[in-house]
Write a structure and sequence with these properties.
15 strands; binds pyridoxal-5'-phosphate; single chain; 7-stranded mixed beta sheet; Aspartate Aminotransferase, domain 2; alpha/beta; Aspartate Aminotransferase, domain 1; 2 domains
Amino acid sequence: MIPYGRQSVGDLDVEAVTAVLRGDWLTTGPAVAAFEAELARRTGGVPCVSVSSGTAALHVAYAAAGVGAGDEVVMSPMTFVATAATAAQLGARVVFADVSDDVPVLDPGAAEAAVTSRTRAVTAVDYAGHPADYDALRKITDRGGQLLLSDAAHALGSSWHGVPVGALADLTTFSFFPTKNVTTAEGGAVAVSDPDLLERARAFRCHGLVRDTGRMRRPDEGGWHQEVHAFGLNYRLPDVLCALGMSQLERLEAFKRRRARLVERYDELLADVPGLRLPHVRPGADPMWHLYAVRVLDGRRREVYDRMRAAGVGVQVNYLPVYLHPVFEDLGYRRGLCPAAEEFYDEQLSLPLFPGLSDSDQDQVVDALRGILI
Ligand SMILES: *Cc1c(COP(=O)(O)O)cnc(C)c1O
């Protein structure tokens, strides 16, 4: 089976990890700060806090933003459940606003209509690596005083009108799961420039521990003393995995080029296939493509999915609109809430896309699809 996504781990990655395994630090050591500094070079200099997953990154970002009971968070439903689950876990009410038709990212008009006096944050999702419209979203959050969040689990390496993802929102989250643009096995990060939000994100990652005597309530307790002023969790990304991340980041540009080339080939090879709608790119977007997401028209998505799988092509569907998960249905959310997202879901199919996909494997994917649709 040709998978829809796959990590690209080479000898240099293995050497980087084994070097740390043989050293003095397994968890928080020098590779953590080094990885965060390297990441910040890809986010336009915005400081990054590494964490143990993309889900942890979202939890940290919402916690740093002060999201809690009584708050609403407006977000796109065309995402993995974690974008919403983490806000719900903090007690917030999730308000889903629809996506646009050309690119399935948060529609600024829908987001604006969903914002109320209770909205604390608006979360965009850079679906497939294509940045949301951060200029329009920023205008809305500036007017209403909300924080703008970006779930950029797909989009490390993308930019919008020349500004790298990571520098477009108040808080941006990344995932380093194996199928994502770079991997640390499990891992993630939050990019945040405001010093107070940054401090809160760092604290939440490590139990909320305060170690700076200047900020302590009991500064004279003794050299061992550390204290907690606000609850946090253990979301640290170990040194071993930060070393893998460092090594992976060195290939980010090469990964981006290979993904772009494969997207270009799909665009060419599928241009004349009937019953398909290929991904659109907005002016100003420079995506690092995480997914190649086509739309299968005429109600044939289920059939095409099953037949592609039977032909040994591991296509995927990304995603069930989040509010159709039973956990949200049980809270009263219903089909019909975001028609554009639902229509997209009904037609969506992710074709294999990863740096190690060869041209001949890609040709096999294209032939299988052509064979079904032509
Ligand atoms: C992968 C992903 C996450 C979660 O990241 P993990 O590292 O798997 O916890 C969140 N949001 C989106 C859009 C994702 O694709």
